[in-house]
Amino acid sequence: MSDRIREELERWEKTTLNKAVSKSPERQPSFQTTSHIALKNLSTPLDVEGADYCRELGFPGEFPFTRGVQPTMYRGRFWTMRQYAGFATAEETNNRYKYLLNQGQTGLSVAFDLPTQIGYDSDHPLSDGEVGKVGVAIDTLQDMEILFDGIPMDKVSTSMTINSTAAILMAMYIAVAEKQGVKSDLLQGTIQNDVLKEYAARGTYIFPPHESMRIVTNIFAFCKNRVPRWNSISVSGYHMREAGCTAVQEVAFTLADGIAYLEAAIQAGLDVDTVASRIAFFFCCHNNFIEEVAKFRAARRLWATIMKERFKAKKEESCMLRFHTQTAGCSLTAQQPDNNVVRVAFQAMAAVLGGTQSLHTNSRDEAYALPTEDSVRLALRTQQIIAYESGVADMVDPLGGSYVVEALTNEIEGKAVEYIKKIEAMGGAIQAIESGYIQKEIGESAYQYQKEIEANKRIVVGINRFQMEEKPLTDILRIRPEVEEYQKEKLSRVKKERDNAKVKETLALLKKAAQGTDNVVPPILEAVKAYASLGEISDALREIFGEYRQSN
Amino acid sequence: MARKIRVLIAKPGLDGHDRGAKVIARALRDAGMEVIYTGIRQTPEQIASAAIQEGVDIVGLSSLSGAHNKLFPKVVQILRERGAADILVFGGGIIPVNDIPALKESGVLEIFLPGASTEDIIQYIRDNVQE
Q: How many domains would you assign to chain A?
């Protein structure tokens, strides 16, 4: 069979193809994906020759999960439509959440402002100008009570993009749920809790890596007992991709981080299968459609293999790479912003064809500011159109079996394995980050990408081709500057009204736990319930753990 | 021989999005300038001090977090207070167009938006700094 195809392919190349190309050559001398994987003009059965279908692809819902983590995929239930949202105050964000849920969104995703993410209260000097800007400002439990007011926490699942202060925000979530009469074992959601990528790309670290990993594993242990349906980490490639790395690097660096977390959990005495089944992942979906679809499939198969071979996972569930996807923020242009709607739609479609479990679609105006309500609705509608109208959700892994998709899946997996081996040789992801290797790789790719655009080797519509005179977008979301003052007043009121002796006592207990080997999450929960502020709790931990400083 | 232009690229505030700052720092270096990059999480105070200590000609500020209205003018103000008004300041990032006039009025010379090319920025610096 393949001999015949090979002969026929050669004949076609020599005759039909050759004739066409000599008459009018292809647009470029060569083609490649964004990860520099060479693309031939045609893939055939020869590209997947010798593939073992049952071993490499198998069936959805079964190892190695190449074709999807659920047997029915979106025929059973659509992915969760989860728009990342948060701005200004808890009051305003609560309104946006209710709006989004009314519009058919099926889960919440909280964006916190930078002070909240880095452990500063709104009245800290370093918070100046940042309060309520990239997300909602949360200083005490009171803000969290307002944020989830009227939202049924036993029904809605909530994802929180929170890392260094993840334990504090999760504790607040649990405390608010308790007040709603919802026990913690019913809560469903995710905390990002992925500090490693903060050192590599996103920058909201507080403590040194070793101490951060201790908190992460404390959270794993706490969740196992108290919040068993909660994803205790979302290992994220998104931010490294946004910082400039390629699709292959995204898979490699993310899974390398995943390995580091599992190693840390094992060292902390936790059982692989218990931890692994609560690990979620988070990827970006960029423009190169087929490469992105292949990337998700490759990541799934590779993680399954790592779990089985390296970690000897016993449960199938531990081998499942479940992931959230966000479309690529860095692909949005300020020029001709309506074009972003189209970019987002293609990226979202690729994420769905790649088998995502939940999805955030970016809004058209995000190269200018946080999105307006109208823009967010359009972004959500984009997902709904893919789900209800496009038909792609009616089939499981519809691109599986495409010669080029399978070949690219193999190639991305192979190249990611090479990277992971290299990182392992350095001593693992923590060392690779501490030595600056990952940062350097990301920076290098980002610079190449920019140079390709400026040399017109890469075309971005509206940037280096098809430009036009236009008025810049001015109808955008503004965060009122009064938010900062309002937030400070709220905080000072809470500090006056709470039982300050109780706060002192809980913070002292937290420090004691941090100094020793006890889990820090239970004392954080007690401090939160006493209305200790996020800044106070973070400061208590800073005192014991110290702070990380980036070297340049 | 012409003296090399000295540039400080800085990230004021808590924003950790440093892709743009790093790409620009490298492009300016490749264009023959001497570039110091501060890293993330710098206060306006730290940035102004670094600019003066390093004797730079121009400071490029990058912020994607929306804190530019407060932080960019502060850098200019501190430079002036310290008698270093000759150090020029430009900026870039996710900055609404409506904010640009006030930023310029405060002494920020130019704002570059997403999509700006490194060539534009290199040219801008060469045009504005006396070599």
A: 2
Cβ proximity of A485 and A516 under 8 Å: no
- Residues of chain B contacting residue A330, judged by C-beta atoms under 8 Å apart: 19
CA dist A307 and A312 (Å) reads 6
User: Is the confidence metric ipTM above 0.85 for this complex?
Assistant: yes
Q: For chain B, how many structural domains are there in total? A: 1
Residue of A nearest to B16 (CA): A203
3-class SS of residue A281 = strand
3 state DSSP class of A279: strand
Please tell me which residue of chain A has the smallest CA distance to B95: A368
Sequence-distant (6+) residues with CB within 8 A of A446 are A243, A244, A245, B19, B22, B23
Residue A170's domain spans which residues? 53-69+81-454
Residue of B nearest to A440 (CA): B22
Degrees (nearest 5) of the Cα angle A97, A100, A105? 115
The pLDDT tens digits for A439-498 are 999 999 999 999 999 999 999 999 999 999 998 888 999 888 899 999 999 999 999 999
Kind and range of the H or E element at A326?
Answer: strand A323-327
Task: Report the 10 Å Cβ neighbour count for A391.
Answer: 10
Which of chain B's residues have a Cβ under 8 Å away from the Cβ of A201?
16
B96 domain residue, yes or no: yes
Rounded to the nearest angstrom, the minimum Cα separation between A339 and chain B is 14
Please report residues of A whose CB lies closer than 8 A to that of B119.
Answer: 454
Q: What share of chain B is helix, strand, coil (3-state, %, to 5)?
A: 45, 20, 35
Residue A466 lies in a domain: no
pLDDT tens sequence across A116-148: 999 999 999 999 999 999 999 999 999 999 999
Q: Do A11 and A125 sit in the same domain of this protein? A: no
The domain of B14 spans 6-128
Q: Do residue A102 and residue A35 come from a single domain?
A: no
- List the CATH number of the domain containing B35: 3.40.50.280
Q: Are residues A357 and A264 in the same domain?
A: yes
